[in-house]
Design a protein that fits this description.
single chain, about 150 residues, alpha/beta, Glutaredoxin, 6 helices
């Protein structure tokens, strides 16, 4: 592969590489227990980590931002319901069942990305369809406003 070919491929590898979900839970029941215990709210994100460009951008531009991470650490339990398509990224049968159950309850139309703010009991407080147009700090302020109204 020559340099010209590499330069054409690199942006796609960067864009469609595996997302890091460090600090994210994949089991909503577990997240609800933690949210109750720690008096936090739940941010549930539906993504297609290996095929949905807007999902990948959302994680890189918002969820990986330091300001968002600091806020999330103190106020949120993060849950990711991922629906990868590539064979190499397929989930275990148990995880696929958990993700399907979350989608059946909170994302019946199969939107990606789709983000839902829940209280510890699983009640929907707000949802966002697609990639938010605001910067991470404005997105955090929007979440804070909803949380403050529901304390």
């Amino acid at each position: 592969m020559n340099n010209n070919s590499i330069n054409k491929v690199l942006p796609f590898l960067f864009l469609f590489g595996n997302l890091s979900f460090t600090g994210w839970y994949s089991n909503l029941s577990e997240a609800r227990q933690i949210a109750r215990k720690e008096h936090k709210f739940i941010l549930l994100n539906f993504s297609g980590s290996d095929w949905c460009g807007r999902c990948i951008r959302m994680h890189k531009e918002i969820f990986d931002d330091g300001y968002f991470k600091d806020f999330a650490d103190s106020s949120l339990v993060l849950v990711n319901a991922d629906f990868p398509r590539m064979k190499k990224n397929q989930l275990s049968g148990k995880q696929q069942e958990l993700n399907n159950a979350m989608a059946d309850q909170y994302n019946t139309q199969g939107k990606f990305p789709y983000t839902v703010l829940l209280n510890a009991d699983g009640k929907v407080l707000k949802s966002w369809e697609g990639l938010p147009s605001e910067k991470p700090d404005a997105f955090v302020m929007e979440i804070k406003t909803v949380i403050n109204a529901n304390r």
